[in-house]
Write a structure and sequence with these properties.
Helix content: 40-55%
Number of helices: 6
Shape: globular
Largest sheet: 4 strands, mixed
Strand order of the largest sheet: 1-2-4-3
Strand content: 15-25%
Distance between the termini: 30 Å
């Protein structure tokens, strides 16, 4: 009876698992395309003889400066460092606007690789953590997540009061959330 009632959910999860198994794992090699702020850029490898590997955004490409023998973990770490730098700068730029709109300030901003959430808010300490992967998507997604987490400083859970505040602070939040989740699902 339990399985029968949840058949649709189970079938959808099985479909997502099959799609995820077919999707190639990023190798961060020359010519591979990655997303930054909603735009796809080709990776261009630049050999580096010494020093730490790093990545940077050029006009129309991501330059990945790594030793020629760098493995996928070194290349991934360099790309994630680029995402972290980009996201930190975007938080610095976008958070004050969102804080002014919501009327609350975060005491601390953190960036973390998260598997199941776009952000989290510790209402006791006013510390907000944002998912590192937000740097891949359009900046509107970042504004939505920042506004969402700041709204938790007024309303703890997700009830009618919370959604009413979100409607006032970010009228298009439902569309942006839908887009963000669709982008993420497309990557699975």
């Amino acid at each position: 009876n339990f399985v029968h009632r949840r058949r649709t959910w189970i079938e959808e999860r099985l479909r997502l698992l099959a799609v995820r198994a077919e999707k190639p794992v990023p190798l961060y090699v020359d010519g591979e395309r990655i997303r930054l702020w909603g735009t796809e850029y080709p990776i261009v490898l630049r050999p580096r003889l010494c020093g730490k590997a790093y990545a940077e955004r050029a006009a129309a490409e991501i330059l990945l400066h790594v030793p020629e023998d760098a493995n996928v973990n070194v290349r991934r770490t360099a790309i994630e460092a680029l995402y972290r730098t980009e996201l930190a700068a975007a938080i610095e730029r976008e958070a004050p606007v969102c804080e002014a709109t919501v009327g609350k300030r975060a005491a601390l901003w953190r960036i973390r690789a998260m598997k199941t959430r776009w952000g989290s808010c510790n209402v006791r300490t006013a510390a907000i953590t944002l998912n590192l992967q937000l740097a891949q998507y359009d900046v509107r997604a970042l504004r939505y997540v920042i506004t969402h987490e700041l709204t938790h400083l007024w309303v703890r859970g997700h009830d009618a009061h919370f959604y009413a505040r979100m409607d006032g602070y970010f009228p298009d939040w439902q569309n942006v959330r839908r887009e963000l989740n669709a982008w993420a699902r497309a990557e699975l």
